[in-house]
Amino acid sequence: MAKILINFAHPALEKSRVHAQLVPAVKSIPGITFNDLYENYPDLDINVQREQKLLANHDIILLQHPFYWYSAPAIVKQWIDLVLEHGWAYGHTGKALKGKTFGNIISVGGSEHSYSKEGHHGHDIHDFLLPFRQTAKLCNMQYAAPFVVFGVHKKEFEDIREYSRQLTEVLGRMQSADFDASALPGLAYLNQLLQLPAQTQQ
Amino acid sequence: MAKILINFAHPALEKSRVHAQLVPAVKSIPGITFNDLYENYPDLDINVQREQKLLANHDIILLQHPFYWYSAPAIVKQWIDLVLEHGWAYGHTGKALKGKTFGNIISVGGSEHSYSKEGHHGHDIHDFLLPFRQTAKLCNMQYAAPFVVFGVHKKEFEDIREYSRQLTEVLGRMQSADFDASALPGLAYLNQLLQLPAQTQQ
């Protein structure tokens, strides 16, 4: 069974609508390690050894966060800058993360259309996530398609509950022993994992 | 004369080769405000009011930093997350930055070729800078082409001195009263500003 680590980052969870629902759903899945970065490091003072040990002990690493200024909240960058050390995570001798899967679980204010060439943000969400995709690649990890909740400001409680259900199911499938990770790069969004015939037959 | 603000971020300037030369060069230019983020906020505890006041008082805002993990060091993201508040920097009533110029001055480990489709990083440096470009746009600012020092690990002291000289000249031109900011979007790199006929005639 694949071991999943969720590195969660939300500087104001008490004000959140989406993550307030996603977090309990994710936490309720047996066998998933939920690592709340702001709770553990309110001063952004990351314990590098602890974080590297966590990474080494898991197969799938997902960053769960709101999409702040076309990226993750600052603590995620702090975590990347400090934890993914040269010689450990990348470089000739840095193979600690080789073969693992890396991805984002994000909530986004704008609609999916707003993240398109014609839309308000002028570019696809995948274009903005390029630094994460390439970070995964440099560390010899496979980047999974992102799990995205678009248009969070207009979402009803019931809609968010549906996303929580989806995410729970997606993570459950990724955990399962016969999950085929090679299907991931073919997806635009991780949400679509549930539509894959090979996966739904399980 | 345009007022330039440099927000500088390097978590380990004592180990830097490029910025160790660029910083004194930049600081020596009369009329430029040099704002060292890590020096002012070693705990990443940004004074939002101070930073907003600085922004309001300048016409050109440049982020100077090494390119860490395809982006800026964490403190720059912290600064963006906290300082560019809704209703102040963006949104219907957020017009404090309207018409200003925004950009990056970066040092990059890889060569310019490594930042291409065929190269090691598989994408152009401009693709990785997209979150900064779009952040500028959302705040009604014009994004300037980035000033880039590629291949820093292999650069000789003399090469870096040449970049310092270039940067000093570029900033001097941007300050000058008759500088035409509409030339900026046509450049791939801010370094090329010196080659523009209209600018070199000054």
From TrEMBL, chains A, B:
Keywords of the record: Oxidoreductase
Flavodoxin-like fold domain sequence ranges: 3-169
Residues spanning the membrane: none
InterPro entries to which the protein is assigned, alphabetical: Flavodoxin_fold (IPR003680), Flavoprotein-like_sf (IPR029039), KefG/KefF (IPR046980)
Domain of life according to the entry: Bacteria
GO molecular function, one term: NAD(P)H dehydrogenase (quinone) activity
Annotated PANTHER family: GLUTATHIONE-REGULATED POTASSIUM-EFFLUX SYSTEM ANCILLARY PROTEIN KEFG
Protein name: Kef-type potassium/proton antiporter accessory protein, CPA2 family (TC 2.A.37.1)
Organism of this sequence: Chitinophaga terrae
